[in-house]
Amino acid sequence: MDALEILLQRRSSARLTEPAPQGDARENIVQAALRAPDHGTLRPWHFVMIENAGRDRFSDLLVSAAQRQGLDEKAIDKAKNAPFRAPLIIAVIARCEEHPKVPHWEQVVSAGCAVMAMQMAAQAQGFNGIWRSGAWTEDSMVCEALGCRPQDKLVGFLYLGTPQLKAAPVAPLDSTPFVSHF
Q1: With 121 labelled, which of 26, 33, 84, 162 sits at a CA distance of 20 to 30 A?
Q2: CA-to-CA distance for 10 and 143, rounded, in angstroms?
Q3: For the whole model, what pTM was predicted?
Q4: What is the three-state SS of 27-86?
Q5: CA-to-CA distance for 24 and 28, rounded, in angstroms?
Q6: What stretches in the chain show pLDDT beneath 50?
């Protein structure tokens, strides 16, 4: 699959199994993230790999956070099982710094670009994943446990593994409603 085809056929895959990217494949994924647009060369990214026993610890963390929030048993059970949707989860943190020319939002967007680059690099190597965000990215207990500082932003979790199902081809969208001319 060439680069343009990967971009044009991009589709998240939520049904993931072993194996997760390892070795050179994983390093390629991280290296792709490090090529995200980066105004000011701030390198505003940090990646926390969650796998193996780390998924058990992450499950315990999400359960504690859900209980602290007073969520019902169904939501607590969903939080408990979330880390086991894929063999590897990469928590992506925008490590934001005060800068006179690079605002906070731009550093967060850079981290978002890093997530996209990682997913595309995974797909190029026969893996796939899904970027999940949601309430856990805003939870202070989760953010602190993953090493976020007050100025940082947890932009989401990239679940990676081997897709269980072959994705159907994606039909092109009509770009007209999304494009204007000045």
Answers
A1: 84
A2: 29
A3: 0.95
A4: HHHHHHHCCCCCHHHCCCEEEEEEECHHHHHHHHHHHHHHHHCCCCHHHHHHHHHHHHCC
A5: 6
A6: none
